[in-house]
Write a structure and sequence with these properties.
Helix content of chain A: 55-70%
Shape of chain A: elongated
Largest sheet of chain A: 5 strands, mixed
Number of helices of chain B: 12
Strand order of the largest sheet of chain A: 7-6-8-5-9
Radius of gyration of chain A: 27 Å
Strand content of chain B: 15-25%
Shape of chain B: globular
Distance between the termini of chain B: 25 Å
Order of helices and strands of chain B: HEEEHEEHEHHHHHEHEHEEHH
Number of helices of chain A: 21
Structural class of chain B: alpha/beta
Number of strands of chain B: 10
Helix content of chain B: 40-55%
Largest sheet of chain B: 6 strands, mixed
Oligomer: heterodimer
Chain lengths: ~525, ~280
Amino acid sequence: MNEFDQRLAEALARLPEYLGGHIRVSMTALALGIALSIPLALVSVRRPAFRAIVLALSGVVQTIPGLALLALFYPLLLGLAALSQRALGVSFSALGFVPAVLALALYSLLPVLRNAVTGLGGIDPAVEEAALGVGMTRRQTLWLVELPLALPVVMAGVRTAAVWVIGTATLSTPIGQPSLGNYIFAGLQTQNWVFVLFGCVAAALLALVFDQLLALIETGLQTRRRLRTALGGAGIALIVIGALIPAWSRPAARYLVGAKTFSESYILAALIEQRLSAAGLAAARREGLGSGVILDALAGNEIDVYVDYTGTIWANQLHREDVKPRDEVMGAVTAWLKERRGITVLGGLGFENAYALAVPKKRAEALGLRSIADLAKAAPRLTIAADYEFFSRPEWAAIRDTYGLAFRTQREMQPEFMYPAVAAGDVDVIAAYTSEGRIAQYDLVVLDDPKHAIPPYDAILLAAPRDAQDRGLVEALQPLVGAIDVSLMRAANLRATAAGEAASSPEAVARWLWEEIERRKTAPK
Amino acid sequence: MRHSRPDTRGPALFAMSASPVISFDEVGTSFDGLRTLDAVSFAVREREFIAVVGPSGAGKTTLLRLINGLAEPSDGSVRVEGEDVRAADPIALRRRIGYVFQNIGLFPHMTVAENIAITPRLLAWDAATRAARADELLGLVRLDPKRYRNRFPHQLSGGERQRVGIARALAARPRIMLMDEPFGALDPLTRDALSRDFRELHDALGLTTVMITHDALEAVLLADRILVLRDGKLIADATPRALLGADADPRTPPLDPYVRELMQTPRRQAERLQHLTAGRPA
């Protein structure tokens, strides 16, 4: 089996879960959107001021980027869930389905609402007059005349909304809703272009199929061909029912392993899942979670375990800008997580994945760069690239202010593209990760940090509050504590990025990693 | 064919003694602070055919809409079959009054038969009765039920559409018909045929009709009595003969100059026509 076939087979194996999740979330959102916008249109059709406000608001929602809208709903719902837990004793999951549905439903409001308002407002006044004249009540006028006449325009809006929602639903992956976006996010992180393409094509096909089925309903209603309407309706019903079946038949895994949106996180999540499964614990992965979402998800018992980094929590959660030695940071983070969030630190994995400024070796020699301090003079002529978070993180502020760095340009890009970009000279310096395999691959040097501006970033295994006393989980994961040094993690990361090799999927790399851990344990030191 | 008709007919004579079907008593309306009707009083007897004429903006449509509760009087009272319209349930009132519009207003998403049977449907008649009634009415307005019942309004000519409009207004067997320039948008031949057909239906079904027209000739030829409205005021209420000056009764007050001018038109048209046909060899 060649690499392409294997990746395709892998993609197909995940299709039921991702496609099912995608259909469930987008159809629920669409149904909710329609259920909201039709009454709003009816209320606003005779109230111009109200109509203007509603249309403006739904227009504003439309301008919020899909990813941001989805991400905004998560903390909102987290708050609501906590509130309802306290007030009513009922808690609901703020991760995944609910926030995705709400955000996407808001997204679908505008096209349906605008078309419904146009359709209802565009009815010939002579027909309205006739409806009154033949003795219809308000309600009868609505049901017998206005809605049927507005229907084609409303259906056109529903079709637009369906295509938007199905497309945007790919962005529900980072808030924990499995969707076709999982292919795209995972594929981008692990340079698995088969996955990226597969996700895009699947989402496009799904949108196309729905659009055509809705078109069938639309023309069926318009030309009164019941068969067409029934066929379109049956098609949609069939797809939705099909999407519900995996949800029924798949046993709910007791343990959910979280992964952030980068390759190392995917590998470690696969490793944890494999260890739990090997210990006979039913586990599954929630991949591609945004780094703003994942810790809250753990604290809320939405996921059970994942790997984070001490420096991230130190800076983002403890809001510390000072830099302390490794052990001190680890101790402070462990205590804080336990005390404030109820999260247990099961232990460090044994390596650090810190931010580091990296330059191609040749360039470093040419510019005489050995440490970040050397960079200050050259910086005004240089361009630095980093991931989307870096420049807004306190670590950057610390490095910048400590060394007085002022670069000519700062560019943000997908981490995968940073390494080839710096190697090719498109940018001069990158904010790399120390456990990144491509540092060696692209012959980069990591600049020293003599003033200790960058906090330590120990990889730590975190367990949710509800699993604090779970001996099975703790024992299953104990072998991982202190078992992975930075060179092993680099090697693993490099394997994952090595395009052209069949064994580069996170699962395969995780299996390899475990074999290495076992081998090193048994081998004499 | 009904080319001439006697001024007095049996049913009309009988109805003279009954109480009026429609009566306006000092009715005034205003719209945006403007007076649209001012102290209008008249009565319509059973089986009468009334034409309302007058220039645009005179308040003709408002007068019609007051009868089925689509407009409300600000002063005075409108009574239909003895009941004050303001006290009546407007929905029930509209269902027992036929209404034909100049714009026809057929429901574009319903077939001819469904359009005709709409008021019966609102009155919860069963489907079979409604279908039979639609066919019967298509026959009455001279459209072949088999050919027309399943067509949609956009598949009909203007004249056919207005025939369906009339059939729809008649569907629930109303005793009162209100018509707002029903034949205004039709070509002359269709208009002539349709108006004569409707007058026959009016007589045959024993209807009481109030029809708005801006065509004095149409009013003269169709109606039993003509009301002339101008600037919201009723300035004439008389038979066509009286308005044409045929009954020179010294007891009636002299006609308003506008009315005289209005009524000159059909007379002049008739004279010119006569001159043309007489002056040339056949």
